[in-house]
């Protein structure tokens, strides 16, 4: 199993993540072998496995370190993440993710929709097979509902140039941050951590998710296709306005309006103008400051967790993740 | 709550189905009220509620008649059915279902994909909140997986004119029949029915599902847009070949090939020719015979269930359903 190189410095964690991938793969059983292989390829497409990694580390907070349970929960979280990615790809009409063809461009939307649905089911099968209790499972379902209703909100706000920082944060909170929070929380709760520490884990995950998504959105404004693995400025064309643009717009809404009114017919030239306006009004710099604030909040929660070798790893990974340039 | 008129003769069941709809509705909570209303409208779009009805009736097989549990399981099944319908609509590019606009044509595919995902989560939330055990839940997840992998198989067989009766039956078995089987099984198991009776319920549901889908496919060859509520011959244009066509093709493959080779560019005239060919080779008559065989098998399983008022209802509903003209 190929696990992302970012885990090379953490051999135990890397080994666990490899078992996570194996567990997911073992659940993918489709009669048609071409279909099965395609879905399995997705499992091994080289994502960072951040959510299962945080979940596994947080499964060391409490006294009960049942490795099998921790790995099952991590596997369910990554499966859920993959399911939403496949559907996001259909929706974003993105052609590549991590540099390889997405399922929907390689086959078609139909295949992508059902594959995502299939992975949703696999996620629940893994959870119900390994989770501690029905109450825990209900919590996970509700968390997933919240993630999906976050996606639904986002669709509604497209092309609304009056979108505020608050709108943006509420969208990120319901989407990325929620899944990071659930990941840390689920690990903690499986380890029988105290209620206080479980909440610390949830909050830490939430803040990490917020900072992670802001950084991710900032990268869209900085790199080019090669370094980002994702079409630059794609979000703007689709009417999804992220933090650097929102901050810059606040400084001078009138300067942006004529460009944004063009919606999906924005030309490359328009894109250059937009980038310059965002630079002029320091959209990226302001967004970076907010990401830093969330990172600080995450670290504050992390400080409150009980001592242990896992804690140092959480510091290092979080610091590396949130100062990332790739 | 508007419940389909087909249940007018069964006031108790109709009342329970109304509670099922209320339970589903109570779980739909999206911050954006427009989105929430749209999803709720779907819940009340007047589907027949067959799966929850069978589940509720089978929940009277065993000695434990916990109404709340039975209603929750029925609600989860209908929610799952609605989630797959929404995604099927995106995939089929069908414009209306039951005569009202489908979610995807009213809004767009993006909204439809996330709404379906949201309902998947609601299904699991309802199940995990009310189901008897994790084992039962795992069984439900696996059944859903099987349904989705059935959908994936179907995509792969599009436009394959060499598709056999066996291929067709295996597709229907993994899709419609599976959900009918799970519905009957889940009701039975919640009522603490014996293992033998639970298996009878499963088999009965499976056979009903097979007969139901064959009848549904036959209707595509018989009515017009108004009586069917579904575009006639839509399946053929999309490369989905159903039983009447497959049977007719077996009699003279060469006669059909030139028409089917046109794939989605089939004209209305071609459709008329196809209909005449199918009539000539008695495709519908042969399909009806097979539907009758599945109905007989279903009744045989039903006969084996313990006596009770629910049993007469199952007879009546199944007979009405499978001889249906609408």
TrEMBL record, chains A, B:
GO terms for molecular function: metal ion binding; prenyltransferase activity. Its cofactor is Mg(2+). It comes from the Bacteria. Keywords: Magnesium, Metal-binding, Transferase. The keyword NAD does not apply. Pfam families: polyprenyl_synt. CDD domains: Trans_IPPS_HT. PROSITE patterns: POLYPRENYL_SYNTHASE_2. GO terms for biological process: isoprenoid biosynthetic process. InterPro entries: Isoprenoid_synthase_dom_sf, Polyprenyl_synt, Polyprenyl_synt_CS. Belongs to the FPP/GGPP synthase family. This is Polyprenyl synthetase family protein. It comes from Aquibacillus halophilus. The lineage of its organism: Bacteria, Bacillati, Bacillota, Bacilli, Bacillales.
């Amino acid at each position: 199993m190929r696990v992302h190189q970012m885990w090379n410095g953490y051999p135990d964690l890397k080994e666990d993540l490899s078992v996570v991938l194996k567990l997911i793969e073992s659940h993918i059983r489709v009669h048609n072998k071409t279909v099965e292989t395609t879905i399995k390829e997705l499992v091994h497409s080289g994502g960072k496995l951040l959510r299962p990694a945080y979940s596994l580390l947080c499964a060391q907070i409490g006294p009960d370190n049942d490795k099998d349970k921790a790995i099952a929960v991590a596997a369910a979280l990554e499966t859920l993440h993959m399911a939403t990615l496949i559907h996001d790809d259909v929706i974003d009409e993105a052609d590549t993710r991590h540099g390889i063809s997405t399922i929907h461009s390689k086959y078609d939307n139909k295949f992508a929709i059902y594959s995502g649905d299939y992975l949703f089911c696999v996620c629940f099968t893994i959870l119900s097979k390994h989770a501690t209790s029905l109450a825990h499972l209900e919590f996970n379902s509700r968390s997933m509902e919240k993630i999906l209703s976050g996606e639904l909100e986002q669709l509604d706000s497209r092309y609304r140039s009056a979108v505020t920082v608050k709108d943006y944060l509420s969208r990120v909170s319901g989407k990325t941050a929620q899944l990071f929070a659930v990941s840390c929380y689920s690990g903690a709760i499986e380890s029988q951590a105290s209620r206080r520490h479980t909440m610390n884990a949830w909050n830490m995950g939430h803040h990490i998710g917020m900072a992670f998504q802001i950084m991710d959105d900032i990268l869209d404004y900085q790199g080019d296709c090669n370094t980002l693995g994702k079409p630059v400025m794609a979000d703007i064309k689709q009417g999804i306005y992220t933090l650097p643009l929102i901050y810059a717009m606040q400084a001078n809404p009138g300067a942006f309006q004529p460009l944004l009114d063009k919606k999906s017919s924005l030309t490359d030239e328009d894109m250059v103008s937009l980038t310059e306006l965002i630079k002029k009004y320091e959209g990226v710099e302001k967004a970076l400051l907010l990401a830093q604030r969330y990172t600080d909040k995450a670290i504050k929660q992390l400080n409150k967790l009980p001592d242990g070798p896992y804690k140092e790893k959480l510091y290092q990974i979080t610091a590396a993740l949130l100062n990332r340039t790739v």
